Amino acid sequence: MATTMTQTETFVGKRVRRREDPRLITGTATYVEDIQMPGMHYAVIVRSPHAAARIRSIKTKQAEAAPGVVAVYTGKDTERVGPVPCGASLPGLRVPHHHVLATDRVYFVGHPVAVVVATDRYLARDAADLVEVDYDVLPAVADPEKALAKGAPAVHPEWPDNTAFTFHQEGGDVDKAFAEADLVVKQRMTSQRLIPMALETRGVVAEWRGADRQLNLYTSTQIPHLVRTLVAQMLSLEENRMRVVTPEVGGGFGSKLNVYAEEALMGFVAMKINKPVKWIESRRENFLCTIHGRGHVDYYEVAAKRDGTILGIKLKIIQDLGAYHQLLTPAIPTLSVLMMPGLYKTKNVRADIVGVFTNCMPTDAYRGAGRPEATHGIERMVDLLADELKMDPAEIRLKNFVGKDEFPYATATGLMYDSGDYAAPLKKALEIVGYQKLRQEQIEARKQGKWMGIGISTYGEICAIGPSPATPAGGWESATVKIEPSGKVTVMTGACPHGQGEETTFAQITADELGVGLDDVLVIRGDTAIVQYGIGTFGSRATAIGGTALYFALQDLKAKIKKFGAMLLESEDVTFSAGQVTCNRTGKSKSLQEIAGASYRALKLPPETEPGLLATRFWEPPNFTFPFGAHIVVSDIDGETGQIKIRRYVAVDDCGNMINPLLVDGQVHGGVAQGLGQALWEQAVYDDNGQLVTGELMDYAVPRAHMMPWIENDHTTTPSPVNPLGVKGVGEAGTIGCSPAVVNSVVDALSPLGVRHIDMPLTPEKIWKLIAGGN
Amino acid sequence: MKIRVTINGKSYSHDVEPRLLLIHYLREVVGLTGSHVGCETSLCGACTVELNGKAVKSCTMFAVQADGASVVTVEGLATDGKLHPVQEAFWNEHGLQCGFCTPGMIMASKQILDRTPKPTEEEIRHGLEGNVCRCTGYQHIVNAVKAAAAGAGK
Q1: Which end of chain A, N or C, is less surrounded by CB atoms within 10 Å?
Q2: What is the CATH number of domain A38-138+201-249+256-289?
Q3: What is the C-alpha radius of gyration for chain B, rounded to an integer number of angstroms?
């Protein structure tokens, strides 16, 4: 086992195995469900089986009398709990009052109606069946386009048009661009509703210490500090009387970037019964009641010149919002608008969003959050344009890319792309896949009646979300670095990793800056009683913003160490290496431990220097970062069955500098799996009555090991100028780059049939019908 | 009902409700929280344990069905503080991210290698079909099983 270093070794840029893994591979990590406390009670939530109904009455007597039951609460009891918050603000946004428990009406299947609390989880579950709710079932609407039609049932009676907001954004001169165009290609496409399906469902343990007025909330979240601020408000509790702990979090993908009714509800219950209470979401509840993603219907128009130059883009988005706004629901499609030009130079864009209420679970941020939809759209449109012009899809992209000498580049949607060389990953991917040879092979394959396709996607994304003006809650991140009296280093980050591995990458950054070993560093996150304050982990922000906050805190700390160095070594000109601070002139050195000791013992202090070795920084990024890349998919389709086999998957991603390429690869693989899930298999299906038909893993097809192709991944490296680490972020890249490459490949395979577009997921049935119909 | 189960080599005897699921028995009665509940329907594999040498989904078995059986959970794999080769390989190959599926994934991987010491990639992927991982895209898990197989041959 490695211990304190004795010689200079650096870690940034190396494939270091993770420091969080020992507890995870031995089954000794603590997730919310693993928390046990004396006197623990268990809560089960009674939920609406109807998508729209008036509640005539709720009878709880029988449940209350059931064995082990200590309380049953309904919407009447929780009326004073504040509404589930929506953090997004848009002009004219209609925000329905979102009670933690339904009061007189339910709006979607799974809507919480009552909570049963018992001494045992099985008894709580038994008693939940004894709560009698009398519903007056109302007509529901589950499809956003149907919800906009005249005479559609009103999701919220006060807004019969089911429109929560409209949003318009325009850049350049779109009408002129379209007037001057040689051709315009149009396409309607959907980006279907998806279920994030983190493997750990949500869960909450709430513990009320009445004498101290202290609420401890253990919750599986990506944003512990924001949960504290907002849930304290909901419960009218002083924020400093609330502690939120996120123990191990079993995946989030955006679905835990939220504040949920159950988080406040468990706080409410614990305060009522004065005992700790645990609620663990069932998988069925997770499908019904944790946010969904995507849910777009997009209408695209792209204007171009005959030589392939894109002149302008028009986009109309119909966003299925669901019944309520969760934390960021209405903001997600605005990210699609920002990203709509993709990597292309066009300065003329027009976008209109209609946000539509439906009797479904709210949509919100799911891996990529608005950017996969935008990338899917533009990358499909570019292929349609290439097809129309008989141009090669690689060539048309290379023709329209923002040039590598044009950065920083101001986009038509108001972004400033930081750095890029968009042709580089595409050229690399084309070379790896052997593009020219594959095109030759395709000609031969077609002669033999085989369906073979090659699909390209070149994506950009908005990461490091994000400068505070672009976010509802502050877009900075924080870090504290403390050198303990023993010389060991403790980092406290406001980011809240849940699988991304910052306990390792932040230790790598720290070890290199301070010249210590990885084992000398401990990274702590996810406890509001320990960590200063933080925003959390989402939007590929933790390393680019949290890592940068850490970097600057380390610089502050080093400046202070140098002062002690000046006192002990008679020089501030020092090097940090091998656990020593060494004077560059004399070669004399003191260990970090000796310097820390001098600092804490404080017998003698350098001028204007306080005791202790600790630094905190809250770093506000000046801009987003903009990673990019190229994915190429080669597919073979079985004409008899409609099955798609992905023969090759090449991913070349540029996420700026890489702190740990092993972890970057892991992020890309996982991202691609979720993109492939959307492209080929996954879809949240509500029937016309608002029943979720895909409510279990049996009906909702997440990728499994035998369904995944081998991903050949590689990188180009274009450092970001936005932060001193030069990092951009990679959490969502795989998902964003994937789906258009897959669909472009399949459309390419079927293009001899005249197929121009297929909506996701590309199920064998859909493909088989196209082939059977075409032949 | 009274049951006697050997878990990770240690003998346990408890009086349990007939409807108590094996996963809840392991997690809440015995206190071994390594195995997880991911779906309650045998579809995700996070609860995979070994029962008399065979990998089973402990979320759809009653504890009473394990009466007299020998169970191995992820906590029982390391011996004398030394990780099992499959655990070591998952660590080395970055075969996990959030870690929630990992205990079940490791048990399923061990089963693959117990049955087929030198599996092909296809055999590995087929052997992992019953276990869902939402983070890794499975590639590093496949690498881990390959690495464990290669290491065992040395």
Answers
A1: N
A2: 3.90.1170.50
A3: 15
